Structures are given as structure tokens and as C-alpha cells.
Fold Transcriptional regulator.
Amino acid sequence: MGPDDSRDTVPPRGGRDAPACAAVAPVLARVGDKWSVLIVRALGPGPRRFNDLKRDIGGISQRMLSLTLRGLERDGLVTRTVFATMPPRVDYALTGLGRSLWEPVEALGAWAHRHHPEIAAAQRRFDAASGEGARDPGGPRSVAGDALTATL
């Protein structure tokens, strides 16, 4: 490492950012998990019923969809409206806060579509070089079969 090495010139971020990071960590955990991203994206165009969401978000269990919707509702991102019909009808919709999240989620989806071939090629090269095949013990599944990429 020499004087031109950028690691020598970048000041350490240190502990002063730790409280700010700790404050937003739960929010990022909620909005950054796979199912929340897919649900926010699915609700972007407008209110949806539970079974419509389940059908359109392939691979999500009824329990996981229910838990994730409840968490998004708790965080003020989704509203749940029950209609007094027979049988009862329940719609889920993004709140104003949820709509503000939808825009970056859509941008993330566009990025994923645009770069999917590059990422899949990089994964194949890595797997071939490491002899690991299609498994990735340290992270998410291959983008080629990932429900996140397929739905975005």
C-alpha cells in the first residue's frame, strides 16, 4: 500500500454513525427483506386481495404472506381494509409512506432486470471456478431461479 492507495485517504466512519445505523436497522430489515419488496411491488398499481397477492408472488406461503403483510401494516406501509360482505373481503393497499417506498422498489426491479444476465454470468463463472456448482452456501440462491428476480 502506498500513498496513492485510496484506503489510506478515506477517513474511517467510526462509531459516530453507529447510533444512526442502529436506529434505521429495523426499518431496513423490514423493507429490505425479499417478501416485503415483492409485496410492495405488487401493491404499487393499487389495492389487492390476499389471494391475488399470494398467486402473483410465487413461492410465498400463506403464513409468510400474512406475517409480512402484518409487519408492513404495523410499520405504516400497508393498510388493511375489511369489507362487510359475504364472504368478507379484505383489501391491502400501500399508504402514502408505502407509495414512497414503491418508487425505489421499482427502480431496484428495473436494475435487476437490466443486470440479470451479467449477474447470472458472474455466478456461473464463480461456480465453475470454485467447483461449487449452483449452490451458494453464503448467500441467496442463484438469480436464475430466484423468485425475487422472477417477480421483479
Remarks:
- The beta strands are 48-49, 78-83, 89-94.
